[in-house]
Amino acid sequence: MSSKSVQTVEAVSITRSVEIAASGSQVWAAITRSELIARWLGDQCEFDARPGGRGRFGWTEHGVSFPVEVIDVNEARRISFSWANEPGEDLSAGNRTTVVFELEEIPGGTRLTVTETGFDLLAGDAEYRAKSWASNSDGWRDELAELVAFAPTVELAA
Length: 158
Known about the structure:
The N and C termini lie far apart (76 Å). A 7-stranded antiparallel β-sheet has the order 1-7-6-5-4-3-2. It is built from 3 helices and 7 strands; from the N terminus they run E-H-H-E-E-E-E-E-E-H. By secondary structure, it is of the alpha+beta class. Helix content is 24%, strand content 35%.
């Protein structure tokens, strides 16, 4: 008699950190102001950076937008929001993950750590959740590279 053992590892979170040659104020503006977000995260943005604030992140080339709702804000240090996993659908249990941006001043700039959780709570089977995790993991890699290049160019009002 033979036995077969299958182990399933389910990815439930993504964490990425980048060092940006920009001040904390420049990075904060780039991650909280709609007109600046649209320069590195997709190309369309409505974002109300207050607890309970709502909006959308959009990618014209893909014809998609994702509803977003701000959960918590610690001015210039931390912001968290939930966003829909499926484009165009409302935020709901089973169709949302939570993203946290945390800023830390470092010599020569700012470290930004992005953590996205909730993949284990998405509706659908393990394969769907794993594909969602992989897509977002790749997405954060690409979008954060754009932010690293963009944030140092942000001009702040005097």
